[in-house]
Amino acid sequence: MSGNKWHKLKYNLQEARKQGKNTLLTFGGAYSNHIYATAAAGKIFNFNTIGIIRGEEHLPLNPTLSFAKDNGMQLYYLDRTSYRNKNSLEVISQLQEKFGDFYLVPEGGTNELAVKGCREIIKTIDIEFDYICCPCGTSGTLAGLISGLQGHNFALGFAVLKGASFLKRDVGSLLKISGNSSLINWDINLDYHFGGYAKFNSALMNFISRFTSLTKIPIEPIYTGKMLFGIYDLIAKDYFNEGSRIVALHTGGLQGLRGLSKKSKRIDFF
Asked: Where are the domains of the chain?
């Protein structure tokens, strides 16, 4: 449960236990960090886990799904059309009929309880700073950081999806349901998606290679790599105030590197 995943799952696991649920059901792609983490959480905290995977089954299983299965997760594949409607009452009812009673964890783990968990990340930072940055897939982590700042300093998200202006609306909704709708010290940059989700090019890969070589900090091209590229580029463009201290949140995701193919142009990492 690396990076931000423990923070997203922590209070969801507590709520599942409080409700007397023994099974967690969640959604994700074949290389999903969230699927990986939920499977691990199930094994550690003694929950049954069901992963609803976007698309068709491909054998042999990739490292992400192999890990999930080895940790006891039951994998069930949903065609992409049905998957797009995964939050509908019809699809949820069908899943309840098939699997019985379960605690539903949303795709990416993002809900009000995830915001509560990610809010606590701010408390773990023991230095003064002016900006905190994070990559954005479902916006739950960013909403948590904004909530934790409570109007102080600035939170900047970097969208990893193309056409992700909807994330700003989603952050606003998450802040509203968590009682923080008045907070305005945040924004989401939409310019560093490199063509779309799980897409990348030579410029990004060269940056990641240089960054890793210089810092000895491993990063990947789906989330953290895009954020750090964006931070460095914005520094060069004088976006940040001179003398500012910037915290960059590494959200994990390194497990997916094992599944990256050199020939792949797009991978379902979410």
From this structure: 5-109, 112-259
Domain spanning 112-259, CATH architecture: 3-Layer(aba) Sandwich (3.40)
pTM of the model: 0.92
Residues 6+ apart with CB under 8 A from 108: 8, 28, 34, 137, 138, 140, 270
Confidence of residue 266 (pLDDT cuts 50, 70, 90): very low
- The model's pLDDT over 188-221, given as tens digits with 9 standing for 90+, comes to 999 999 999 889 899 999 999 999 999 999 999 9
Q: Contact at 8 Å (CB) between 211 and 178?
A: no
